[in-house]
Amino acid sequence: MSFYPKLGYLIFGSRLRRLSEYFLAEVNKVYAQAGIAFDASWFPLFYLLSEGRQLTLMEISQELEVSHSAVSQLIANLKGKGLVTATRCAEDGRRQLVELTKKGAALLQQVLPVWKAIGESMEDLVQEDPQSRKILEAIGAVERSVAEDPLSARILRAMAINAKTISS
Question: Any idea of the CA torsion for 35, 40, 56, 54, to the nearest 10 degrees?
């Protein structure tokens, strides 16, 4: 693991992606071992729909902070599995209202105990090291910072400063 730490922030995004992929794979192992046909990548949408509300694709996109296209693809996938429906809105036929089907609601009931165990397990995990205890706060702080001043803008400014330094 010495490769990653020595590169510091240069590989920050790759480390986060690797860790995220690890967590998703581990959670998917749990679903598989429990005999639950659920994919961890569906969690955000299922969680939003868990309250029984109908949501538009735009509402889902905004709430999850992902593209409309990504939401459309996920909805199409879950519709194909019979887990959600998307019906035209009566007031505005351009909008689709998404909700869990009976099959989706039944699947939700199966995954709720897993979600509870995930939360408990993650709490235990971060308690093992004092630095881990503030990980959600730290991620939130980074998210807020890049929302105010995007990383690309920061990189471009640094490149401009470095270029001036080199040419001086």
Answer: 40
Cα angle 18-19-23, degrees, rounded to a multiple of 5: 120
How would DSSP label each residue in 16-67? HHHHHHHHHHHHHHHHHHTT----GGGHHHHHHHTT---EEHHHHHHHHT--
Sign of the torsion angle spanned by Cα atoms 113, 52, 81, 95: negative
- Residue pointed to by tokens 């990653």: 4
* pTM for this model (two decimals): 0.82
Per residue in 117-138, pLDDT (tens digit) is 999 999 999 999 888 888 889 9
CA pair distance 60, 51, nearest whole angstrom: 13
Residues 38-56: tens digit of each pLDDT:
999 999 999 999 988 899 9
